[in-house]
Write a structure and sequence with these properties.
This protein has 111 residues and is an alpha/beta fold. It has four helices and five strands, in the order E-H-E-H-E-H-E-H-E. It comes from Escherichia coli. One of its GO terms (biological process) is regulation of DNA-templated transcription.
Length: 111
């Protein structure tokens, strides 16, 4: 997990991404835009983190080691209304619809 000390008023964004280069790119962009990003690369670490330190937004990959993104989205929705944006390489319409149906707020395809 990658995290830096932040001001309590800085919006916190949880990045759930197992591809190191993309995760670092998202961290760099979000820090430059004055957000406080945290990167988690394994699905099994997400739920405990969200319960203990709820972020203001979650950028969630679908295909992760451990618990997959769809399962995580479904589980997070059981206890939280934190906005979730699915960020994935899957470009099929059915994947997008499934993600939105189980509770994601938006869906972005990776370049």
């Amino acid at each position: 997990m990658t995290e830096l000390p932040i001001d309590e008023n800085t919006p916190r964004i949880l990045i759930v991404e197992d591809e190191p280069k993309l995760g670092q790119l998202l961290i760099d962009y979000l820090r430059a835009a004055s957000y406080a990003p945290t990167l988690i690369s394994h699905g099994d670490q997400v739920l405990p983190y969200v319960r203990q330190t709820p972020p203001d937004l979650i950028l969630l990959d679908l295909m992760l080691p451990g618990t997959d993104g769809l399962t995580l989205c479904r589980e997070i929705r059981r206890f939280s209304d934190i906005p979730i944006v699915m960020v994935t390489a899957k470009i099929e319409e059915i994947d997008r619809l499934l993600g939105l149906e189980i509770g994601a707020d938006d869906y972005i395809c990776k370049p």
